């Protein structure tokens, strides 16, 4: 019986048109896996039409070398197309909802498969990044015509360093093995690091604000609420605010944290992170989800913000009590 990886390649071979999607508000792994797969398929099947669609995030435009890096395609292109959705756990989060118009749908993802979709699914939540999966797919099937290029390798590398926080999280031997293979291709990794490690002066000042105004509860849960007015004061331009998400981890007694960012619609985007207590189930209760240690959610108002704070605070305290009981039993 064919493996799911072989099945995916068989489907790709059957179609002349392949449209690759990923999640809304893309991060480097969403772009990296999507554009890495596109570059890999273009090199392997030059006769096919391969597109990558979704909104362009100006702050991440450096990821691509071309000025317009998302393809603009008419609805009719979907009539005969295979759609591949990368790095997206649930279907409402797929960027560009026309994905449903594809003749067949393939899901490739490393988030917990709480909301399955698609005709073919390759979901592996133990993988550090969807970009790792794309590289391993190439590796497993390269004798069947798949061609890696420096461009594809660069995109996949961006995805891997994005989701591992430049080798801080989700590490295992596989990550380093794949990265060592990827380094066989020539690309300018220094310029990637320059983009990923530096921020504008105004963004650095917002970082200072976040650290100064972080509320840290006795449990070790930290949070900050950023209003629209405040964010506008910092004049971030296209940068977005993702650079502030890892900041609370710098404080040793912080065990989990959330950044609440008010949107133009008046609701709040919530970005949650944890060192050890899973938070994705809490995120799911607030229109969100994600990984156990890195999730996103939505709060409609202050009342929901308070509920999220209480839920994570409680989860840390319960986890500590459970740990104490375990330690006592072990003694
Ligand atoms: P973020 O906080 O936006 O960087 O997202 C952290 C993780 O949670 C990523 O893997 C996202 O794909 C996932 N995530 C963020 N927001 C949502 C949401 N509303 N629903 C499901 N997953 C989400």
Key attributes of the depicted protein:
331 residues; alpha/beta; 38% helix; 17% strand; globular; binds adenosine monophosphate; Bifunctional oligoribonuclease and PAP phosphatase NrnA; Oligoribo/pAp-PDE_c-di-AMP_PDE; DHHA1_dom
Put the structure in a nutshell.
With 331 residues, this protein is an alpha/beta fold. It contains ten helices and eleven strands.
What does this structure look like?
Residues 247-316 form the DHHA1 domain. It holds the Pfam family DHHA1. It comes from Convivina praedatoris. This protein is α/β, with parallel strands linked by helices and 331 residues long. It folds into two domains: 4-196, inorganic pyrophosphatase (n-terminal core) (Alpha-Beta Complex); 201-330, Diaminopimelate Epimerase, Chain A, domain 1. The protein has ten helices and eleven strands. It has helices at residues 4-14, 28-44, 130-141, 150-163, 173-182, 189-197, 201-212, 228-233, 280-284, 302-330, and strands at residues 17-21, 49-52, 81-86, 104-109, 120-123, 215-216, 221-226, 256-262, 268-274, 289-290, 294-299. The strands form two sheets. A six-stranded mixed beta sheet has the order 6-7-8-9-11-10. Strands 2-1-3-4-5 form a five-stranded parallel beta sheet. A hairpin with a 3-residue loop joins strand 10 (289-290) and strand 11 (294-299). Helix 3 packs antiparallel against helix 4 (150-163). The longest helix is centred in the C-terminal third of the chain and has 29 residues, at 302-330. It is globular. The termini are far apart. It binds adenosine monophosphate. Adenosine monophosphate (AMP) binds at residues 23, 27, 89-90, 93, 111, 271, 287-291, 294-297.
